[in-house]
Specification:
Shape: globular
Distance between the termini: 55 Å
Number of strands: 2
Strand content: under 5%
CATH architecture: Orthogonal Bundle
Helix content: 40-55%
Order of helices and strands: EHHEHH
Length: 106
């Protein structure tokens, strides 16, 4: 009978503990160049675009957007420009649904 064990590591993500570009890339199964592309197309934001990627910091929301972009690439074969558009449209639909619910229409 085989005996398996695994080790799981976790990282808290927050204002005081943001993700570095290489950590975001690793969490998505990508490389730092892919994270640079995410910033270029607007999927994730950095406050200091003039700083090198090694100094960029990302939030848990950025991680969620990056993971969704990765899923869109993998599952539907879209490029990052299309992923950015899809994510923007999804965000807008959620926002509009919230407005409708707040006004008792949905």
């Amino acid at each position: 009978m085989a005996n398996f064990s695994s080790v799981t590591t976790t990282t808290a993500i927050g204002v005081s503990h943001p993700l570095a570009a290489n950590e975001l890339a690793r969490a998505c199964g990508a490389d730092t160049a892919w994270v640079v592309q995410l910033v270029e197309v607007g999927i994730v934001q950095v406050t200091t675009t003039d700083a090198p990627p090694e100094r960029w910091e990302f939030s848990s929301n950025d991680l969620q957007c990056a993971l969704e972009a990765r899923r869109l690439e993998r599952d539907f074969g879209v490029n990052l420009d299309a992923a950015a558009l899809i994510l923007d449209l999804q965000h807008e639909v959620r926002r509009l649904k919230a407005v409708l619910r707040a006004n008792g229409v949905g």
